[in-house]
Structure formats: structure tokens, C-alpha cells
Amino acid sequence: MNIRKAIIAYKSGSQVGKDWAERCSCELESLGVKVLMGPTGANDNPYPVFIESLHREIDFALILGGDGATLGAARYLARLGVPILAINVGGHLGFLTHAIEECQNTQEIWERLLSDRFAIERRMMLEAKVITVDKCLGMNISQPQESFLCLNEMCVKPASPDRMVTASLELEIDGEIVDQYHGDGLIVATPTGSTSYTVAANGPIVHPGMHAIAITPICPLSLSSRAIVIPPKLTVSIWPLSIDDLSLKLWTDGVIASSIFHGQKVDIRMSEHQAQFIVLREDYSYYQALRQKLLWTGARVRYPNQNRD
Asked: Which residue in 52, 81, 127, 151 could disulfide with 271, CB within 3.0 to 4.6 Å?
């Protein structure tokens, strides 16, 4: 990998992350790399400044934080094809990151990157657009719609500070009405996101090596409402049915992207962009990650398998 320009984003409020960022920045600059560094979090978004300052030419991104910091980086950097190295510095679960214990020797990491001794894992992303179909809303229907990216999930659900709002939504897949849902909302997830909000809503776990879309209702007011998994090239449309509900929102990876009103719909499909993650581990196991991160315990009684070598 030829690294001329790099960015480092560390978790806001993490002194350990800031110390790591400063150390890594000095090491990379000593190798002739131009480095921009900044915090990332709920109230800090360094990526627009990074992208404009480096004229959209970023060779490498180092993310020092947990899954939230990594998701934010992916949403901004996937369109530019920037490879991301994520290290769990100050984070929690760390499904998408390397453990900090594995990355203590940062000088060796730079040597591996510069000599191409690493792998790139590409993860499917989703793209969403809020489309106005009712001219009475006073919006320009023919105007190009802003698109939103996510690595984990798109979610359509209300946001209200003073009451628990029930969402009434209609699900359409490739122009065919599938069902109507009354509950807390709908999750449309990638395989990467299936171990996040989706699994918490009793949805399916999908291997990240697959391309698929998982649709999961959140607390539906019907025992027959179930999650479904569909092929990745289909378009998922979600229509709000309540006329007087102004609290409905589109969320991308847990961040509010847009309001949704009656007379609009959300179209969600697989994005042409993919998140690119640098993998340094040589013995990574997705199933081991599931056992460790989700605390799988298996059967209460363990039996030896004497037929296994």
C-alpha cells in the first residue's frame, strides 16, 4: 500500500484514544505520510473536514474506537474507497475492530501495510432515499433525492421526547405489498448489521460474507409478524400510513438521517459502495467472534465428541 495521506479518528472523550492517535500520527509522519487527526462521536464529525482538506484523496484511515466510531467512518469513506483499519481503543463490543492487545506494536503494523502484508475485507452497505410522492407536501418531486449510506442498518421508527409512539408502516418489496406493521418500527439490515439492532429485535444472524437484506419488525403488535431475509438486489420500500404522525424518522446506523411524512416513502437497496476493512489477523474466526461477543454458552451439559480428530 502506498500511503501518502492518512486520517486518524479517535473516540471523543477517550484520553487513551487521543494518546494512541498522537503516537500513531508521529510515527506515520516520520514515514513521510501527511496525517490529519480528530475526535469522532455523537457531537464530533471530522470527516467533512478531512475529505475537503485532503481534496478527497485519502489513502488510509485509522479508527481508534469501538463499533460506533467504525460505522461513522464507513458511512463517509466508502464512497471514496478508503481502506479502514479499526482498533478497539476505548470501545465496547468491537465486532468490527481489532483488539487493542493485538496492535501494541504499531511500527510493525505500518511495515505490514507498506509491504502489502494484509487482507481487505469488503462489507455490503445499504443506500436509502426519502422520496416524495404527494405534491401537496410542497416539495420538488423531480429534484434529485439525497442518499444515505449505512453499514449496519436502516431503521424507520418514531422519535418523540414525551411519548412512546406506535408506527404504522407498509412494507413493499420490488413493487409488491408484503405486509403492514404496527409497532415500534422496521429494521432493514445488512449481514454486518444482523448482529446489532437486528439480533436484539429477535432477527436472524446472517454471515457477513453473504449479500442479503434482513427485514425485522420491532415489537410488532402481531404474533404473526416475523423477520425475513431477501436477495440483495431487491428494493425495499417503506410507507408511513399515519396521516398525523410527524415523529417518524429514518435512522442510519443509529443516527437520525431524515424525517419522514405521510406522502413520502423510503426506498432502500444495496449500495454500489462497499466498506473496506484492513484485516491483520491471520486466524480470525467469525464463529469465535459470535461466541465471545454474544456470550454464547451452548448446552448446559457438554458432551465430548469422540469421533472428531
From this structure: 127
